[in-house]
Task: inverse folding
């Protein structure tokens, strides 16, 4: 089975075949000799790759998880081939994207309205969390097609804030 | 000496105080909010008193409830920790009026240093160098633009009642004054309920260097050298060192002397910190923190002096009993604050439940933390989960030890700032010592090694397959699962939170 794994924004391909309790693992075309053992039910894993030991800490679900190894943090999104095809079709039909809140907070100020054009990294709104004011920026040059929150509203993590439609590039 | 003290705080600092008190044969009284029923400080103290309430104002900020708890438990003294009521002169006064010992400076010292404008005036009078700027608040951005001409750009706009980096804005040119002034004022009002702002020169490549001081009630004072706190973002410190790589013997003695002069000017008693901005060989008074600081452990590691113990001795009326020349300064110490935040998203706060936990160990590694497996990390309190502290004979060895310790740390369920600290510890400017308070802002986080990413990808895929297998088995195990859960619930009243937190999570 083939998986598309986005790690901290960079995509890697993992192919795994399982024969009884033997794993055959290929990453980005490279075969790795892997053993994987769960230490507990809390996400600690003892992994061995090509003879090198790695203490892995892991939490999350089938489509997104977070891995810690040797002090570094890896934010992971995964899809298998079937899911990839389905998601591609979805993206095709909807276009643009929804900017979601990555943390709980309060909308202190809305800086855009429907129809506004914003530059890449242009401010969309100010979200206050932990008594700090955080500017939420547009990931790309876009037009605002919907604003899902109002000033003063408390939002939770993952709640949609603004929907954007990408602008055609100038050239 | 006291037999029983009350700690008006929570988290790692409450534990820190409990530990010293216990070593000195004193009992500790913890107080706790509704969120903290299972918090470590309530379990490690000798007596735990529920304050009730969810808001800080109903619990850790409630002077009435805390004084009542002290009265009910027969505590003889109150330690405020840091944050909450630590720099609240009214609280200090009420504690003293209730006939209890206040483990902190006199209320008058807190008041004098608490207002940034007032403290600048007192410091100038005591010949403590201050940053060029105004001591009076400015009314609006027009007045600010006029005043800025006399001070010189870049200008720092600061909140009169400020602290913790809130309400501070840097302005490079007059055109930017209006927007910055408005933002700073808004933040100051929401954080402190006081929108007054003042202006000062923003120094070129400044470093934040602070001096730890100790005064007993008999007028004896010593300084415990400096701490280097320049690794910070938005004025929130990430990593601290003792000593500082830019301070030589002469400057150290000079800064120490000035810090003691600052303390004397406000009649200081107890442990305090005088913060300086250091720029090209000059140093200027920034502010004084009239309490124990978060980063006090690096001073303890290098001097061998237990600062909480000294606070308790001083509050009980003992004299220091040692002179400046007797204070050891041995080796190098580094502290990293482990916050629940995500460096790859600009340090946005991270929340969740701590699933697994592996704390670092080994020689000369100290962990001060109120964190435990099963702890909910929310937005109710400060996001600091732990302080990781190391000591080594030299700076290079301390850096290597801290990297090693950070690599051992696993906190599952929330993101932490550990990867950012690792990046700092490997940054050439940090290693050479040529850095300032702007270092963190220039760095990019979340960039990882491709080979390591592949391993993480493999782990994630196998994890997914294990999850799938388990859910495939779940149908046949369903009935049994329900029975197990009911039986667990029946005993969960006794053990819903673990009693011991081993280093293996």
Result:
């Amino acid at each position: 089975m083939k998986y598309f794994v986005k790690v901290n924004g960079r995509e890697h391909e993992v192919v795994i075949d399982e024969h009884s309790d033997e794993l055959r693992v290929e990453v980005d075309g490279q075969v790795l000799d892997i053993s994987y053992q769960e230490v507990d039910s809390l996400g600690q894993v003892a992994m061995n790759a090509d003879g090198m030991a790695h203490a892995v800490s892991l939490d999350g679900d089938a489509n997104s998880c977070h891995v810690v190894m040797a002090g570094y943090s890896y934010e992971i999104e995964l899809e298998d081939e079937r899911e990839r095809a389905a998601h591609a079709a979805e993206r095709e039909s909807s276009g643009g994207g929804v900017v979601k809140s990555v943390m709980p907070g309060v909308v202190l100020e809305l800086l855009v309205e429907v129809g506004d054009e914003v530059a890449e990294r242009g401010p969309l709104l100010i979200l206050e969390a932990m008594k700090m004011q955080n500017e939420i920026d547009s990931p790309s040059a876009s037009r605002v097609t919907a604003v899902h929150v109002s000033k003063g509203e408390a939002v939770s993590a993952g709640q949609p804030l603004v929907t954007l439609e990408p602008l055609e590039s100038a050239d | 000496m006291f037999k029983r003290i009350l700690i008006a705080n929570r988290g790692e600092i409450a534990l820190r105080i409990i530990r010293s008190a216990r070593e000195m044969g004193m009992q500790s009284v913890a107080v706790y909010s509704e969120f903290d029923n299972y918090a470590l400080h309530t379990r490690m103290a000798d007596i735990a008193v529920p304050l009730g309430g969810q808001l800080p104002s109903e619990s850790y900020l409630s002077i009435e409830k805390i004084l009542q708890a002290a009265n009910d438990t027969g505590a003889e003294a109150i330690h405020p920790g840091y944050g909450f009521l630590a720099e609240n002169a009214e609280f200090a006064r009420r504690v003293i009026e209730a006939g209890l010992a206040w483990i902190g400076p006199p209320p008058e010292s807190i008041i004098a240093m608490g207002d940034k404008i007032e403290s600048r005036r007192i410091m100038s009078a005591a010949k403590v160098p201050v940053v060029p700027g105004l001591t009076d608040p400015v009314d609006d951005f027009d007045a600010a633009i006029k005043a800025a001409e006399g001070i010189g750009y870049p200008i720092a706009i600061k909140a009169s009642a400020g602290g913790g980096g809130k309400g501070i804005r840097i302005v490079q040119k007059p055109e930017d004054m209006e927007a910055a002034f408005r933002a700073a004022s808004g933040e100051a009002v929401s954080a402190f309920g006081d929108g007054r702002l003042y202006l000062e020169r923003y120094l070129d490549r400044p470093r934040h260097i602070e001096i730890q001081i100790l005064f007993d009630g008999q007028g004896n004072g010593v300084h415990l050298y400096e701490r280097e706190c320049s690794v910070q973002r938005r004025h929130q410190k990430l990593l601290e060192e003792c000593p500082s790589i830019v301070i030589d013997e002469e400057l150290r003695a000079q800064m120490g002397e000035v810090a003691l002069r600052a303390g004397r000017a406000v009649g200081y008693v107890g442990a305090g910190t005088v913060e300086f901005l250091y720029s090209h060989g000059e140093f200027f008074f920034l502010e004084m923190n009239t309490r124990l600081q978060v980063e006090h452990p690096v001073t303890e590691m290098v001097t061998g002096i237990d600062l909480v113990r000294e606070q308790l001795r001083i509050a009980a009326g003992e004299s220091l009993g040692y002179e400046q020349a007797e204070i050891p300064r041995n080796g190098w110490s580094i502290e990293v604050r482990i916050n629940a935040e995500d460096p790859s998203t600009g340090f946005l706060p991270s929340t969740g439940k701590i699933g697994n936990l592996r704390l670092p160990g080994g020689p000369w590694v100290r962990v001060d933390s109120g964190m435990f497996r099963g702890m909910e990390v929310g937005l109710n309190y400060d996001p600091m989960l732990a302080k990781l502290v190391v000591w080594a004979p030299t700076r290079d060895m301390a850096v290597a030890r801290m990297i090693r310790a950070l690599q051992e740390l696993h906190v599952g369920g929330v993101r932490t700032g550990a990867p950012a600290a690792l990046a700092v510890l490997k940054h050439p400017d940090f290693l050479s010592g040529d850095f300032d308070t702007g270092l963190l802002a220039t760095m990019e986080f979340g960039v990882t090694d491709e080979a390591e990413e592949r391993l993480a990808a493999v782990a994630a895929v196998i994890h997914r397959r294990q999850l799938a297998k388990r859910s495939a088995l779940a149908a046949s195990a369903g009935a049994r699962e329900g029975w197990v859960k009911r039986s667990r619930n029946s005993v969960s009243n006794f053990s819903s939170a673990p009693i011991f937190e081993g280093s293996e999570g």
Chain B has four domains: 4-103, 132-201, 207-442, 457-491. Chain B touches chain A through 58 residues (CB under 8 Å).
